[in-house]
Amino acid sequence: MAQNATIYKVELSVSDMDRHYYETHKLTVAKHPSETDERMMVRIVAFALNAHENLEMTKGLSTDDEPDIWQKSLNGALDVWVALGLPSEKVMRQSCGKAGKVIVYPYGGRTAEIWWDKIKKSTNRFDNLQVVNFSEKDTGELAKLASRTMRLQINIQDGDVMVSLGDRIVYMTPLKWKSAA
């Protein structure tokens, strides 16, 4: 018998000083049975980093042809495609062809570094691709914040991210491996 997703209720307050975006989002996050707390929390931080009124969580791991997060324009065109993990060059190429901007958030420490060393030259041709890495230490600390009901405050300033849940705080410094043109 297949396991069902676990539902997390998240009140996400985003204060992004870099983009002058200040908003609270009420999210219902379905955590796939194979998804770790670390990955789910990275997904929430990725949402905050790209927060917009039209940004949405997708079916993610449950669907092969959808990103983890996307933003569609009013006419249905894909403006932003956000993927987590270590996608293949083929998946990144297809994503870059479907969306105006593609952002990949790899994580996992040395595994992510090896993936990037192997794939980075083949990504040079994608002007709409951005790759932003999270350190293994940061995402490990982030995973400890996961709970079924969360009131998260995420502050972004000068590229640094502060995630707070009650009196617990995790500081993250995303590292841009590739910038979109």
UniProtKB/TrEMBL annotation:
InterPro entries: Restrct_endonuc-II-like (IPR011335), YaeQ (IPR009822), YaeQ_sf (IPR038590). Pfam families: YaeQ (PF07152). SUPFAM superfamilies: Restriction endonuclease-like (SSF52980). PANTHER family: SUCROSE PHOSPHORYLASE (PTHR38784:SF1). This is Uncharacterized conserved protein YaeQ, suppresses RfaH defect. It comes from Thalassobaculum litoreum DSM 18839.
